[in-house]
Design brief:
Length: 259
């Protein structure tokens, strides 16, 4: 479908939508794009809590945007998992967004703290929380796991079927600053046990690591048996199957629930 002189509206300003906007704008000099994001420009602490793995397949994909791969490598943490680097979601978004603002500001507008509350598909109109409406030629839903776009499609089309692959659970991310040489900067270790259903210790840019853990007890602020920081440290050590303690400092990002 040709997008010549078309208006594209994208719901969500995450990595996928910012990447798509870059591709569409560089391919067609007549297309105009508006991105709607309910969060602030800086997002939340959770958005930077842990990193995405970017490897050889991503390098091929990102090659479509000149110079982007090299820019992302500068703000990512190398790992011992071959050619895989870890980059924070916020840093990934910053690089993709900066290119949009530098090269396509006349044809791309990103509206933050702008919540979409309804879609009229037959009229091609998006309704916003502030009462205004936006018309579109093409609508793209890139608004995450709990997508309101998919919910609107389901409401409008009784035959629409949606599958969920994320089971209900809580997760907690802990920032692990540099441990005075006790932890190799590129170390990536899986976590199993210690009250956690799964997790990992992953490298973090520019230094240190992040511990990301999940648990299934939805009525608990922490995994079963964890009452204070000492218990949490012990749980991490059990999950990592470490022979001796090596954590000196931890900074909590808090917990979050998945649906």
């Amino acid at each position: 479908t040709s997008l010549t002189n078309k208006h594209v509206t994208i719901i969500g300003a995450g990595p996928s939508s910012l990447f798509l906007a870059n591709i569409l704008l560089q391919q067609d000099p007549t297309v105009n794009i508006q991105i709607l994001e309910k969060k602030t420009r800086d997002g939340t602490a959770d958005d930077g809590a842990f990193g995405f793995g970017i490897g050889s397949r991503h390098e091929i994909t990102l090659a479509q945007i000149p110079g982007m791969w090299e820019q992302l490598k500068e703000v990512s943490a190398p790992t011992k998992l071959g050619k895989v680097n870890l980059i924070r979601r916020n840093d990934l978004c910053d690089k993709l967004r900066s290119r949009l603002e530098d090269k396509f500001s006349a044809r791309c507008n990103i509206l933050y703290e702008t919540k979409c509350v309804g879609i009229e598909f037959e009229q091609s109109i998006v309704s916003l929380e502030n009462g205004s409406k936006i018309s579109y030629d093409l609508l793209v839903g890139a608004d995450g796991v709990n997508s309101m776009v998919r919910a609107a499609i389901k409401k409008d089309d009784a035959e629409y079927y949606e599958e969920h692959y994320v089971r209900p659970m809580f997760w907690k991310a802990m920032k692990l600053p540099d441990q005075n040489g006790n932890v190799d900067p590129g170390t990536f270790r899986m976590i199993s046990g210690g009250g956690f259903s799964e997790g990992a210790m992953i490298p973090r840019y520019p230094e240190g690591h992040t511990i990301l853990v999940f648990w299934d007890h939805l009525d608990l602020q922490n995994p079963k048996g964890v009452r204070d920081e000492k218990d949490l440290l012990n749980a991490f050590m059990k999950g990592l199957h470490a022979k001796k303690p090596f954590f000196q400092r931890l900074i909590s990002f808090g917990r979050k629930k998945t649906d």
